Amino acid sequence: MENLKDKIREFGLSKGADLVGMASVARFSGVRMGIDQRIFYLMQKLLLFALKGSRAV
Fold this sequence. Notes:
The chain has helices spanning 2-14, 19-22, 35-56. It is an all-alpha fold and 57 residues long.
């Protein structure tokens, strides 16, 4: 799981996301995210949802 998080982080950084975009929304709730950060955040949530779903089978 840690390897997957590292890959997601590397991908986000390669697309221009900053560390604020990769942190939890609760931690930075007052910070306005740019489009790259929003896309990365949604990708991260979708991947985690897919992983949870694959374990349930």
